[in-house]
Structure formats: C-alpha cells, structure tokens
Amino acid sequence: MSIAFKSPIFDVKNLNFSASGQDILAHISLEIFHGEYIAIIGPNGGGKTTLIRLLLGLEKPTTGNIKIFGKDLKHFKEWNKIGFVPQRAAQVDQNFPATALDIVRMGRTSKRKLFSRESEEDIQAVDDAMAKMDILNLKDKMVGTLSGGQRQRVMIARALASNPEILILDEPNTGVDIVSQQNFYKLLSKLNKEENITIVFITHDIGVIADDIGRLFTINQKAIICNDPKAALSCEDMSDLYGISAHLVHNHKHEH
Ligand SMILES: Nc1ncnc2c1ncn2[C@@H]1O[C@H](COP(=O)(O)OP(=O)(O)OP(=O)(O)O)[C@@H](O)[C@H]1O
Ligand SMILES: [Mg+2]
User: Fold this and answer.
1) What is the pLDDT of residue 28?
2) Which pTM value belongs to this model?
3) Do 172 and 85 form a contact (C-beta atoms < 8 A)?
4) Which of 11, 32, 148, 242 has fewest C-beta within 10 Å?
5) How far is the C-alpha of 191 from the C-alpha of 193, rounded, in Å?
6) Are 39 and 224 in contact (CB under 8 A)?
7) Which of 49, 241, 244 to mutate for ligand 1's pocket (most ligand atoms within 8 Å of CB)?
8) Rounded mean pLDDT, 23-48
9) pLDDT score at 169
C-alpha cells in the first residue's frame, strides 16, 4: 500500500480546550503523517504539553475532533503503537527502587497480560530498545544513580520497548549538555530514518536540529505549521506568536 493512501497517524480538526474559564488552545487543526519528523516549539505556557495530552486522550477537548490511525480517539485501543516520554519523566528520586532494565521492561506491560511471564519476544524487545538507546551497559544500575542524560535515554528506551510506530517526546533534553544533546538528536534522526519511526518532539532549542526536521509546529494557543523549518522566520505570523523566534530558529550547518 502506498503511504499516500494511509490515513494520518493523528488527524486533528478544530480542537479547542478551555480550563478554569481560560482558553488554552483554540482552533487547532493539524495532521501528523507516517514517517514524519516534527518539532514543536512555543513559549512556556503556550499549550504544547496540553496539546500532546489531548492527542493521547489524557485530557478531554472542550470541542473538536481527534482521529488516531483513522479511528476516533474514543474508540482507539492500540496505545502500544504510540510511545510517549512525558515532560520531566527522567526526574526520579535518587532512591527509586528500580534498575534501568526494570524501567525499560515496564514499556512491555501493555503488550502482556498483567502478572504473566515475560516472553522471549518481550526480552528481545527490551534488549533491542536498550541497544538502540545505547544503554545496555547501564542495565543493572539503579535509575536514581544515573545522570540526567542517561535517565532520559532509559525513559526513551521504555517508550521504544513496545515497538511504537510513533514516538512523542515532551522536552526530552532539558538539562542535558550540548554534546549529549547533539548525539541525542542524531539518535532520534536515526530512529526516524532507519527504523521508520514517526517522531514528534517538543523542544526549546530548535536551532540545533533545524537541519534535520521535516516540519515545525509553533504552539501558542493557536498553531502555526511550518512545512519548511529553515524558512520558519518567513512563516506567517511566526514572530508575532513566538516573539523571539528570530533568535531560536537558525541554521547551525555552517558553524561546525
Ligand atoms: N487542566 C488544566 N487546568 C487549568 N489550566 C491548565 C490545565 N492544563 C493546562 N493548563 C494551563 O494551560 C497553559 C498551557 O500549559 P502547558 O503545560 O500546555 O504549556 P507548555 O507549552 O507545555 O509550557 P512549557 O514550555 O512551560 O512546558 C498553562 O497556563 C497551564 O497552566
Ligand atoms: Mg510543557
């Protein structure tokens, strides 16, 4: 089947979300297609996390329509097709009683009946996910003792363990040093290109990855969708929405 005939992974029509008498998101319409690599930017409080929570059914829209893999969100059940790494997922207590391996194994529980034994397939998927994130050497370490960047990789491996078709990451890079960040983006890009995993991630440092990403969504109550991130500055209303976008969106290609 040609990709052109597949329905989008997410199809969002005229989504509105208000809470405590405030409009948080208004008139959001967007589609996310198989194989895309999308970055979402926007000011603090602009509604990025809320949009993702709406897409995942964790928050109910005031009005509007969301389809996932062609199905209305309320009928959608195949959540293992979607890997999600929430904002601040990597912040765990130092004494959190689990190893990196334990955490990644949790990514398989939706595929398995509760309390059933781990199958060969589960073991293999966990191992593959850890290999992809280059953390096999951290297997037996307690997560609380890992560095922030290492813990982030563990959380992403957990999301990958269910072999998702799409990976959604909410600011996966906060507090990670610049070299680790660049390696991390290379890794995401590899997952996208070589494993054909659709990637959507929220970030505040779009400059580092402007070369790679396919589309850029700017969210500040409404959404501006930029099909060519390198031309983001010329996107209609972009500077109005983001205020300082001129400093955030630039191309690093020639600086290395
Ligand atoms: N359930 C809710 N009830 C009340 N207010 C909410 C609710 N969910 C989100 N908000 C508000 O909506 C706004 C958007 O929040 P959100 O967390 O989506 O922003 P964000 O773009 O992810 O910001 P950041 O970059 O700081 O993570 C905030 O003002 C927040 O307080
Ligand atoms: Mg957020």
Assistant:
1) 95
2) 0.87
3) yes
4) 148
5) 6
6) no
7) 49
8) 94
9) 94
3-state SS track over the chain = CCHHHCCCCEEEEEEEEEECCEEEEEEEEEEECCCCEEEEECCCCCCHHHHHHHHCCCCCCCEEEEEECCEEHHHCCCHHHEEEECCCCCCCCCCCCCEHHHHHHHCCHHHCCCCCCCCHHHHHHHHHHHHHCCCHHHCCCEHHHCCHHHHHHHHHHHHHCCCCCEEEEECCCCCCCHHHHHHHHHHHHHHHHHCCCEEEEECCCHHHHCCCCCEEEEEECEEEEECCHHHHHHCCCHHHHHCCHHHHCCCCHHHC
- Please give the number of the atom of ligand 1 that sits closest to the Cα of 87: 27
pLDDT of 29 over the 70 cut: yes
Q: Exposed e or buried b for every residue in 218-237, given b needs 16+ CB within 10 A?
A: bbbbbbbebeebeebeebee
Q: Which domain holds residue 47?
A: 3-255
At 249 the pLDDT is 43
144 lines ligand 1 (CB under 6 A): no
Question: pLDDT for 3-25, tens place per residue?
Answer: 456 789 999 999 999 999 999 99
The reply to whether ligand 1 has any atom less than 6 angstroms from the CB of 221 is: no
Specify the CATH number for the domain of residue 169.
Answer: 3.40.50.300
61 CB within 6 A, ligand 1: no
What is the pLDDT of the chain when averaged over all its residues?
Answer: 84
